[in-house]
Specification:
Structural class: alpha/beta
Order of helices and strands: EEEHEEHEEHEHEEEHEHEHH
Number of strands: 13
Oligomer: single chain
Strand order of the largest sheet: 3-2-1-4-8
Radius of gyration: 19 Å
Shape: globular
Distance between the termini: 16 Å
CATH superfamily of the largest domain: ATPase, nucleotide binding domain
Largest sheet: 5 strands, mixed
CATH topology of the largest domain: Nucleotidyltransferase, domain 5
Length: 309
């Protein structure tokens, strides 16, 4: 399944730029992540607390520090900034999928459909044992994305694509997934998490998780243990659903994206009985990456987006 860009053609226009560097931007509640790359080589990162009033200043400081001028950028949707909705796939051509999904999910959205950007992707034909063709709709608030694009433009940053985390995982993991084996991939970000089942390079299941990396900092404390136990329960439920409904056999591994500790990975292996692997940036992106440069799950998604650009 190729990477797919959310339909935001009305929000930005492409602009040619001879600067080989590209900026990745991920905005979430209370902070912004910035990642700069040059021909798939990661150069600089910054994570700053901000709100809508201070975002422009934060981005402007990074742009000035890195001596960027009209640099092209990719926005990666923050895990807490969009909805993922599983629906029956509308019987339309691929070029009409976004429009059809918009009206398919209009009564399920957190905000009015006219104030939303809706796109999505199809599940493989054999998902749910081929009983019904299904799709995931991705919905995000239109004005929030427009404001972000406009703020970046004022700082001299040219947005030319917006990427969805689920599909970026496919890019990040394409060299690590063994084909027909079913893998669960867990992303634990600063404010939210995501669990995705991948088989043969395609997404079969995606679920949001109410968890943050901070809550799992110390799983020996009562709050940390409670958060971990809740996460294990959610993962087991998703695993049971996948194995009983999708017809793709048993889950073989649990892959943890960067951002959690080795102790958390070990506890997952003990609690779930799954072969569990905590991924490093070098696993995902080779020696071009650096663990002292990129430290969390959001930046792993951003690096995948920059590699795919």
């Amino acid at each position: 399944m190729p990477l797919k860009k959310i339909s935001l053609k009305k929000l930005f226009t492409r602009s040619k730029n001879n600067d080989p560097r590209r900026l990745g931007v991920l905005l979430e509640s209370g902070s912004v992540h910035l990642l700069l790359a040059d021909n798939q080589r990661l150069l600089a990162r910054d994570v700053r607390s901000c709100d809508s009033a201070t975002l422009g200043e934060v981005v402007g400081e990074f742009v000035e520090q890195q001596q960027l001028n009209n640099v092209n950028a990719t926005i990666v949707l923050g895990l807490d900034s969009y909805q993922t909705l599983l629906v029956e796939a509308p019987p339309v051509e691929a070029t009409e999928l976004a429009s059809a999904l918009k009206w398919k999910v209009k009564d399920l959205l957190a905000q009015n459909v006219d104030k939303s950007i809706v796109d999505g992707f199809l599940l493989p034909e054999d998902a749910f044992r081929g009983r019904q063709k299904m799709a995931y709709a991705i919905a995000t608030e239109k004005q929030a994305q427009q404001d972000l694009v406009d703020t970046l433009a004022k700082a001299g940053v040219i947005v030319d694509s917006i990427q969805v985390p689920e599909l970026l995982l496919l890019k990040a993991l394409e060299k690590l997934l063994p084909g027909a084996q079913a893998d669960l991939v867990m992303v634990i970000g600063s404010n939210a998490g995501m669990l995705v089942a991948i088989v043969d390079g395609a997404v079969y299941l995606s679920r949001k998780l109410e968890v943050s990396a901070e809550t799992l900092t110390d799983i020996e404390t009562e709050p940390g243990a409670q958060a971990f136990d809740k996460l294990v329960l959610e993962m087991q439920r998703s695993r049971d659903y996948f194995e009983s409904q999708m017809g793709k056999g048993a889950v073989g591994r649990l892959l943890l994206m960067p951002g959690v500790s080795a102790a958390v990975a070990q506890r997952f292996a003990e609690q779930t009985g799954l072969k569990t692997q905590l991924l490093e940036f070098t696993d995902l992106f080779g020696e071009q990456s650096s663990n002292d440069l990129c430290m969390d799950a959001e930046e792993a998604l951003m690096a995948a987006a920059l590699n795919a650009a």
